[in-house]
Amino acid sequence: MIALLLLALAQDARPEVVLTDEARRLHRSALVFDGHNDLPWVVRSRGKSSFDVLDVARPQPEIHTDIPRLREGGLGAQFWSAFGPADSATPVIDILEQIDVIHRMIARYPDVFELALSAADVERIRAEGKIASLIGVEGGHSMGNSLGVLRRLHAQGARYMTLTHANTLDWADSATDDEMHGGLTEFGEEVVREMNDLGMLVDLSHVSVDTMKDALRVTRAPVIFSHSSAHAIAPHPRNVPDEVLALLPANGGVVMINFYSGFVVRDSAALMAGMFDVRRKLRQKHPGEAEYRKALNAWRADNPIAAGSVHDVVDHIEHVAKVAGVDHVGLGGDYDGVTMLPQQLEDVSRYPYVTQELLNRSWKPDDVRKVLGGNALRALREAGEAAR
Question: Secondary structure of the chain: what % helix, strand, coil (to 5)?
């Protein structure tokens, strides 16, 4: 607790970021393209999969995302996460239902969202003043070990798939579970090649370092890390080590920085390093959902972490830019998928503070635009060009 207090005092030494007209103009001129938002899961779990129950056209202060704050944050393109628990007995059904939530969201608010299937779609939709809405499947368990299901997910609009989530699969090792394969199996390599053929981005958030390296060796298109940060800054297994960052220039890939305090603040990341193991043990001990949630909340209360600030997130952006290059870093906020966010990044209205802090650190406007979304758009375009 004392260490956390000292950490908070050290963070307080860095002043709050103050928005300027220059930053606002630059932010409005850029494509802000976020790699990961879990609103569809929140709509399913809290809103019974109904936008009548959870109407995001109205302010929803208990969550991170609603349309008024998306507008305020200047978001231009979003990968909405289609997520289902890795331990579900019906993973394929779960993911198809989540994709259905995203499609229904787009249909419910057609003046705000439009489905994007390509980089050209993103540019056109943004030019029309709407938010280009893409689908990202979180976790290869969702394809049920079937390339046919993978192709079906693509046909339903998915334009990336995270190879694993928290658990190691039959064909790929996770960063937060036992490593069984030393990376990808032969079938795992086949999954990567099929995704290349389809034009789906290979997402390496959540996977082990060996899986990262294997995927980078096999792929013929840029990869993304849709919501990961830099391991050298915050030592959590979900973050990307420098040895992998150094491989990105040859591939063209992009690390989209996660905003979760437990991944971006050094001491918080150290405390959260075993969080997925804790969840598995609690789930085994408390099979009922209510009991599990109560036990998990109690564990969090007993293991507090420092929130950090926008400065910590920009530290990660600068580190990735230093090691991999400015063409290989972006934003993957993980809004509505995390329990704590840094100060001045508390919800989707706060993206302009990243823009301001990059300017405060003497970044060139063109490089700021790359981070905000230009790099992600380029990776999406090149993945499409590499398709069969």
Answer: 50, 15, 35
